[in-house]
Amino acid sequence: MSATNELFQTLAAGPLIPGGTPKPIPGVGSTVSELIGYGLWLLMLAGVGGVGFGVYKLAVSDKSRNAGGSEPFKWMGGGVAALLLSGSLISILNGIAA
Fold first, then answer.
1. In angstroms, rounded to a whole number, what is the distance separating the alpha carbons of residues 37 and 94?
2. Cα four-point dihedral sign 13, 16, 18, 23
3. pLDDT at 86
4. Nearest-CA neighbor of 38 among 58, 13, 73, 59?
5. Mean pLDDT by 10 residues, the chain (98 residues)
6. pLDDT of residue 8
7. What is the distance of C-alpha 58 from the center of its chain?
8. What is the reported pLDDT for 57?
């Protein structure tokens, strides 16, 4: 568990996770609370990655009629959904913890 904790601390201190210092959630153990907080930040990063990959696929895709042109939009939609989910959960949990 120590190596995982160090990894999260390194990511939180660097430019990868902006403001990645989660607040403790009342009624939840400190370790579980930290893991939930970092998990939500990682979900947000995954959403950004999904949107970025969708934009990339849209830029390089074959735009003919039979090439399956909806796939980039599926990636972007999934990324936006992950961003909305993680953002709302972070806001709710920070409101509870404040």
1. 10
2. negative
3. 84
4. 13
5. 65 55 67 77 87 88 71 88 85 71
6. 62
7. 21
8. 86
Give exposure, 37-63, as e/b (b: 16+ Cβ within 10 Å). bbebbbbbbebeebbeebeebeeeeee
Which tokens in the block code for residue 68? Answer: 């399956």
DSSP one-letter string for 14-36: SSSSTT--PPPPTTS-HHHHHHH
CA torsion sign, 18 to 24 to 26 to 30?
positive
- Give the pair of three-digit tokens for residue 64: 């003919």
Quick one: pLDDT at residue 21? 58
Q: Is 63 helix (H, G, I), strand (E, B) or coil?
A: coil
Asked whether the whole model's pTM tops 0.85, one would answer no
Residue with tokens 């403790």: 24
